[in-house]
Amino acid sequence: MNNFYPRFCMSRRRRQGGVSLIIVLIMVVIIGLTSAAAIRNATSDERVTNNMRMQSLAQQYAEAALRYCEAELAKADAARVATLQEANIVTTAFEADPAWNRTDTWLGGGGASATLTVLPELQIKSSNSAFKPSTLPQCVAEKQALKDTNIVYVITARGFSPDYTANAGTGKTTGGSVVWLQSTLALN
Question: Among 28, 47, 70, 123, which one has the highest count of C-beta atoms within 10 angstroms of its own C-beta?
Answer without folding.
Answer: 70
